[in-house]
Amino acid sequence: MTLKYEDPPKICCLGAGYVGGPTMTVMAKKCPEIKVTVCDLNERRIAAWNSSALPIYEPGLQEVVEEARGRNLFFSTDIESAIRECTIIFVSVPTPTKKSGIGAGEAADLTYWELAARQIAAVCNASENKMPKIIVEKSTVPVKTADAMAAVMAAACKGTDFQVLSNPEFLAEGTAIDDLFKPDRVLVGGPQTPQGLAAIECLANVYRKWVPTERVLTTNLWSAELSKLTANAFLAQRISSINSISALCEVTGADVSEVGHAIGVDSRIGPKFFKASVGFGGSCFQKDILNLVYLCRSFGLPEVAEYWHQVIVMNDWQKRRFANAMVATMFNTVSGKRIAILGFAFKKDTGDTRESPAIDVCKALSEERAKLAIYDPKVSREQYYEDLGKEAMEKIEIDEDPYVACAGAHAIAVITEWDVFKTLDYQKIFNSMSKPAFIFDGRNILDHRKLSEIGFTVWAVGKCMKKVLDTEGSPSP
Ligand SMILES: NC(=O)c1ccc[n+]([C@@H]2O[C@H](COP(=O)([O-])OP(=O)(O)OC[C@H]3O[C@@H](n4cnc5c(N)ncnc54)[C@H](O)[C@@H]3O)[C@@H](O)[C@H]2O)c1
Ligand SMILES: O=c1ccn([C@@H]2O[C@H](COP(=O)(O)OP(=O)(O)O[C@H]3O[C@H](CO)[C@@H](O)[C@H](O)[C@H]3O)[C@@H](O)[C@H]2O)c(=O)[nH]1
Prior knowledge:
Elements: E1 11-14, H1 20-30, E2 36-39, H2 43-49, H3 61-68, E3 73-76, H4 79-85, E4 88-91, H5 111-126, E5 133-137, H6 145-156, E6 162-166, H7 176-181, E7 186-190, H8 194-207, E8 216-220, H9 221-252, H10 256-264, H11 285-298, H12 302-329, E9 338-342, H13 357-367, E10 371-375, H14 381-388, H15 390-393, E11 397-398, H16 402-406, E12 411-414, H17 426-432, E13 438-441, H18 448-454, E14 457-460, H19 465-469
Parallel strand pairs: 1-2, 1-4, 2-3, 4-5, 5-6, 7-8, 9-10, 9-12, 10-11, 12-13, 13-14
The protein binds nicotinamide-adenine-dinucleotide and uridine-5'-diphosphate-glucose (UPG).
């Protein structure tokens, strides 16, 4: 028997966060005939989605929300009604790293996920309408999670046909709207049964309304779940690889940008994700690699687990190395020195600070008793308190203007690659700073030669400091 699904299918999503919000907004824009409802337990978040001050910053998001909201896009806390009336139910709730118990520090915490599954099962069970449902894992989950979802549904919900699919999300923050408009691929995994294949077709057809058919990939469930963890592991591995080479560049006179370019033009390697940095951040890379590491250990593959774990080890080292280099360069002490931190978000074009390397660097410098003055164009004041703690914040200045943050500083650290930092008036900044004036470029976005000419002592990731200072440009190992 193959299932016949409602056409067009009504869609809802549990979780109105960085993924649920933008993903469903774009789906509603591209499929005006489909009613899309985004639900959340958090009333403030839903109120914000229904206002002009959206709960997340993402370039282009506001315009798309305004176009579709109230037409076929709705934000609501009425989760039960949404589950009851919809055919396709996306689940996009957090799956953070477990903090305690078995697998603490590595395994994914599936508490939110299971609560959502139980809620769907309970509503379907109580509902008189037994229309078939497609439940879609949008959250990033360990391989085999769909089995758990199916078990919860089978045990707690009688009389409803349901299929569980995996449709991992590959958007990156800061470019989410572009990524969703033109994805490299959409991945839909499901059971390879007639019912499962019918559900895969139903969901794939929604995406095919704006994504070319050849980019809508269909697989079995476990391939889809594992592909998400693997994609993030490979991307993060490239960053850790180039960051490891950045350390070698600094001591040999090689330049990490030149090395990255020289290897990236090899079409077998490719140019993307080769920017050396103060370390990668964001809510996904570390969590998903740890999740992969835990899975490998659970399946008796310690060598594979250790291999991927090194990506995290290298990233932690890179963050520490940056803070240590600052202290070492500034005559082995930053105690009492004012340091301007430019950028606190984990990357440009987002206000998200989850796992931002800025948190580690600020904590390390605070421990050395530096006086920090932080500027970021998008991070909210409350977020600094959450990330750095109330006690530390008593000694930290948050500025609304980068020139104010830099005035009187002994050093500047560029932690986030915001475009605005490239065009600041560094002569004016230099004039306002204590001397010698240091600048630490954790993103290689500044013109180091020009800064040296102004008089700054420049330290940049993967660049030999002597080379930066040498206006002739000849490397001096
Ligand atoms: N942030 C990203 O760029 C990104 C990209 C791809 C995949 N992911 C994955 O997507 C998932 C969600 O990530 P996020 O960044 O959107 O998280 P988020 O914290 O921004 O949003 C999750 C939302 O789910 C809500 N929620 C929790 N339980 C709920 C329930 N039972 N019913 C309704 N709402 C509920 C929370 O209140 C929260 O608002 C994670 O598994 C993450 O790994 C994230
Ligand atoms: O060459 C590079 C590229 C990125 N980064 C850093 O790596 C982190 C992650 O960046 P990015 O991947 O662009 O952002 P995310 O929003 O974390 O997106 C990743 O994580 C998402 C959640 O799983 C996936 O959906 C995306 O495909 C994947 O790119 C940031 O701190 C970046 O500054 C570098 O240091 N060097």
